[in-house]
Each structure stands twice: as structure tokens, then as C-alpha cells.
Amino acid sequence: MNIVQAIILGIVQGLTEFIPISSSAHLVIIPWLFNWNDPALESLTFDVALHLGTLVALLVFFWSDWVRLVKAGIASIVERSIGENIDRKLAWYLVIGTIPGGVVGLLFEHKIEELFHPSKGAIVSSSMVWMAVIIALLGALLFLAERLAKHERRMNGLTFKDSILIGLSQALAIFPGVSRSGATITAGLAVGLERETAARFSFLLSAPIIAGAGLKSLWDIYKGIHSGAIAGSELIMFPVGFVAAAISGYFCIKYLLRFLQDNPTNVFVYYRWALAIFVVAVAILRP
After folding, report:
1. What range does the domain containing 228 cover?
2. Which of 28, 123, 177, 228 is spaced 20 to 30 A from 274 at the CA atom?
3. DSSP for 2-67?
4. Considering its fold, how many domains does the chain have in total?
């Protein structure tokens, strides 16, 4: 049963990391809803496995983009020139956009996590209600961005100001219910990007943050194993969650980008509102 739960959570992570409905919220809601309390599924090692799985999905799907952007970034440093080269601009926009989320994550993520992943005891209903409010509010912002902005600009129309605004929105993802992709896609739509372009930039922007957090967590795991604080048994679920998140994440990116070429984001807005209502109802009615 633990293996099944790990697979389910891995698939959920891979899907909701990229669909703008909040992976962090779903990874809290599902164990809370079904009373899953296996410590292995709440461990640092399993959390790292899920995020590294989605990172692999990003790296594999956008492999040619990453190679091109890294080459362009290195060339801009060597030649000390960005000019009008689109790839060089995009490489630096990704660097700039990563900074706000990285700084906020380092300073505040642990404190926010304690509210929804307490080390002792179950999550209190009030925390779930607050998360539901956040889920609904981001849905409202996505609703407004979808309807009030003109979605006409492509990647070559991205500006320095856009990268700052979208990067700042990514910093809000430390709150479960906001969603990294939800915040950045919403910001991208708000500044007038095409839906598929907003999602593509959002996904590219998320990779450095996920990679940085993953490397830091891997170091924490290494120290924990070396000191004896992390038992070998906690590593059993690592490959299961990793593979499930990587596979589901890859296909999610592929089909979501295709979906957004011809469709608005309304379905994600309505899902957020329905989920928020459901979470509040369960939190109130559950004994």
C-alpha cells in the first residue's frame, strides 16, 4: 500500500507542478484527505525524489532549449555582449527572474512548511482553510489575467521588466496553494504573453529554483545519512516517487503546452475554485 501511495503522490507531483493548480497544495491535501501517515511519505528524501523527478522532466523535455540557452549565455559573457540576440536575452532573463524566488525560498520556505507539514501532530483545520483561500485567490488572479490582458506577445517580445515581474510572482510559490506555475503563468498572461509562451517561460524559469532546492536537500540528506539522523529505510520510496514524478511531469508539459496553444486557462480557474470549496467543506465537517 505504501508503494501505491508513493506512486500516486509521484504522479500528482508531476502533473500539478506544471498545471497551474499547485503541487504543494495537492501533496498536503491528498494525505490529509485519506489520512495517510506513513513517515516515509512525509520524509525529506521522498520530497526530494518528487522534485528531482519533475526537474528531470524539465531537463529532458527542454533539452535542446537548455543547450542553446547555455551556449548563448556563455557567449554573452565571453564576448561581453548581449545585443539583440534573443537567446542571450532569454538566458539572462531566466537568471534575473530566478533571483526573487531563490532569495524568498531561502529565507522563508522552512517557516511556511512548518504550518502544513508539522513534525508532530496532524495538520490543523484552520491551516487547510487558509490554504483553500490562497487557492481561490490565485484562481481569481488567473481569471482576471485571462480576461483583461491581450495574449499576443511571443518569447521574442519578452522584456527585462517582464522577467522581473514574473520572477517576483514566483517568490509567492512558497505558500501552498499559490503554485509556482500558477503564479508565473498568471504573471505572464498579465503582461500580455501568449498562453503557450507564458507557460513555456514559466517552466524554464522553474528549473533553476527546483535544481537549487534539490541540490541543497540532497546535501541535507547526505549529512543526515552520515550522522545517522536519516535511516536507510527512508530511501526505499525515493526511486518510486522519482520515476512517477518524472514520467507524469514529462507528459504533462507536452500536453499542457499543446492545450494552451488553442485554449484559455478557464478550466484551471474553475478547478481551483471547486477545490477550495471542497477543502473548506471537509475542514469544517471533519470531526
Report:
1. 2-285
2. 123
3. HHHHHHHHHHHHHHHTTSTT-HHHHHHHHHHHHT---GGGGSHHHHHHHHHHHHHHHHHHTHHHHH
4. 1
